[in-house]
Amino acid sequence: MNLKERFIKYIAIDTMSDEESSTHPSSKTQFDFAEVLISDLKELGVNDIEYDPKCYVYAHVNNNKEKTIGLIAHMDTSSAFKGGINHPREIKNYDGKPIELNSESILDPEVFPSLKEVIGEDLLVTDGNHLLGGDDKAGIAIIFEFLKYYLAHKDEFNYNLAICFTPDEEIGEGSLFFDVNKMKADYAFTLDGGSIYEANYENFNASEGKVTFKGVNIHPGDAYNVMVNSIQIASEFAALFKDELNPSTSKDYEGYIHLEAAKGELDNFTLHYIFRDFYLDGLEEKEKLFVKNIEIIQSIYPKVKVEYSISRQYLNMKPLLIASRDTIDLINKAYITTQTKLSYVPIRGGTDGASITFKGLPCPNLGVGDFNPHGKYEFVSLTQMSKMVEILKEIFK
Description:
With 397 residues, this protein is an alpha+beta fold. The protein contains ten helices and 18 strands. The two termini are 25 Å apart.
């Protein structure tokens, strides 16, 4: 089974995670997919496999080397759009023109500029009714293709190989039960990015804030000096944040404050915010602004009862990876050797690699050639997927 065939096999299995679930993993189909992956590992001759009850699949290939490199990819796909595609279409030597997915959906480079970056490459696109699942089954397929080569050419490599396939990354729980001791690696890489010409060793610092305004509901005819309208107060609170703190007006290294959800009634209304910044002091400033604006609203409306909380979600892995540059040096060496262009791009979000790095296993992120994830306009570059296999070979040498 070649790289393309394996990828098509895996994306036909719908492994959508469920953020409303209270189970781990959040969907049964992830267990089903894990069983498929275990079977495929055994078919290739891998016997050192541990299947964690939380649906983490660990595998090891001992090459009698001093150090071990781990490769990590996640099994679930986004809950934003249905997966399980059976008829993806291959576009060979893409010519840069719009691609008709179906009668209602056009993959147009004027709308999706990433298409302009893959002219001349072989692509796999959706049927317009499903997401493709390249996030992150492209990463899984790449790991398997590398594994096949590794097993047949062990004498070429200077590191043992460790693998982990994780569940529920799309709902922020991919590293929740990840066990560094079971991984048994000195370094690791998540294969869960976009273009392979970009790698990531820094991500947002992140926290979330919730504020609830508790007012008083009464018939509008009797409201004078009694009603405290929580909906109105919540809207005034939201208006206190400047436009430049909005994610729709921020880019590159700019952080933001994002009103993510609003829910409630006239006498009880809750706003859910997320705060993002690449610098920890910038994150702290946003958290302080959140509290300051609560105090402003409280002073204007002394009758409203306000309850709030702030909690940290994840931190930027950059300081830890810069302090111990081994993983970055391995990436640089591989890209230079394969004569592949490379830019380091900050992740404007989180990554399992950050959480894993803070667990003690250095873990930057590599691209897999997946674009426009989480929807019907997703596509992968088969050319870039194949190229990433070659880059991994150099990382392990």
